[in-house]
Amino acid sequence: MGQLDGKVAIITGASQGMGAAHAKLFVAEGAKVVITDINAEKGEAYADELGENAIFVKQDVASEQDWQTVVAATLEKWGQIDILVNNAGITYSKSLFDVSLADYQKIVNINQVSVFLGMKTVAAKMKEAGRGSIVNVSSLNGLVGGAIGYTDTKFAVRGMTKAAALELAHYGIRVNSVHPGVISTPMIHQGDTDAAVAEFAKSIPLGRIAEPEEVSKMVLFLASDNSSYSTGSEFVIDGGISAQ
User: Fold this and answer.
1) Euclidean distance between CA atoms 5 and 83, whole angstroms
2) Does residue 103 form part of some domain?
3) pTM of the entire structure?
4) Are 238 and 215 in contact (CB under 8 A)?
5) Burial, 47: exposed, middle or buried (Cβ in 10 Å; 0-12, 13-18, 19+)?
6) CA Rg value for the chain
7) Which of 12, 147, 189, 230 is the most exposed place for a label (fewest CB within 10 A)?
8) What is the DSSP track for 128-194?
9) Is residue 162 part of a domain?
C-alpha cells in the first residue's frame, strides 16, 4: 500500500532534476501524477517512462491561462486534485549591478508569480473537495541571503506559504514550504561548476551535497496524510548548513 494511494498530484518543472525525482516517487507511492514543464520533449518522454499513472502537460508556470489548462487537463483525466507541488524555478548568479530589469522580472515571474498562480488556481478546486496539500519548493536562500533575485523570490515563496496556510486551513488545505540546500541537479551543474560545488561540499556539516531523492522524501511526507497536522511550516533539507 502506497502513501499516496488514490491521490492525484500536479508537479511543476518535473521533466528533470528534483521535480522528476518527486514525480517518480509519487507514482511509486500510488499517486496519479501530472507532470508540467516548459520543455515538452523531455516532459513527454519522462511521462511515458513513468507509465500509465503519469501524463504530461506543457506549461509556462507564469501564465494564468496555462494554469487553467493544467487544472482542466487534470480534472478531465482523473477527476480530482489532491496535491500541488510548486517545484519549477530558475536561478542565476549575478551581481546586483549586473542584473537587468528583464532578468529580475523573469526570475520573479518563474519563481514567485508561478507559486501565487498555482495556489490560487488549484486551491479553488481543493476548496470544493474540502481537502488538499500544497508543497512550495523554496530554498535555503528563502531563509538566508544569497544571489539577488533568486533569494528575493525564495523569501517570497516562504511568505506566501504562511499567508496561504492561514487562509486555506479553514478549507482543509495544508500549505508548507521545503527549503533545500545544495542538491545535485542540472541547476547547480551549469557550466564549469563541479569543482566549486565539490569545494563547497566540504563546508557542509554532513560533508556532501544531497541527491534529489532525499528532497523527494520530504515532499512525499508533506503531500501525504502522514503530515496531517503540519501547515504553514518550513522544512529544511540542507545537511546542517543553516545550523552553523
Assistant:
1) 12
2) yes
3) 0.95
4) no
5) buried
6) 17
7) 189
8) HHT-EEEEEE--GGGTS--STTHHHHHHHHHHHHHHHHHHHGGGTEEEEEEEE-SB-STTTTSSS-H
9) yes
Distance of alpha carbon 118 from alpha carbon 12, whole angstroms: 9
- What CATH number has the domain bearing residue 180? 3.40.50.720
Q: Does 241 reside within a domain?
A: no
- Asked if residues 26 and 215 have their Cβ atoms less than 8 Å apart, the reply is no
Distance of CA 120 to the CA centre of its chain: 15
**For residue 27, is it left (φ>0), alpha (ψ between -120 and 50) or beta?**
alpha
Q: What are phi and psi of 103, to 5 degrees?
A: -55, -50
d(Cα 68, Cα 174) in Å, to the nearest integer? 21
Active site residues: 150
pLDDT tens for each residue of 7-26: 999 999 999 999 999 999 99
| pLDDT tens-digit series, residues 108-127 | 999 999 999 999 999 999 99
CA dist 69 and 73 (Å) reads: 6
- CB of 240 closer than 8 Å to CB of 204: yes
Q: Which residues contact 52 (CB under 8 A, 6 or more apart)?
A: none
Within a domain: 24? yes
Determine which of 97-111, 118-132, 138-152, 192-206 has the lowest per-residue pLDDT on average.
192-206
Dmax over CA atoms of the chain, in Å, equals 53
pLDDT at position 93 is: 81
Q: State the residue range of the domain holding 226.
A: 8-236
Q: How many domains does the chain have?
A: 1
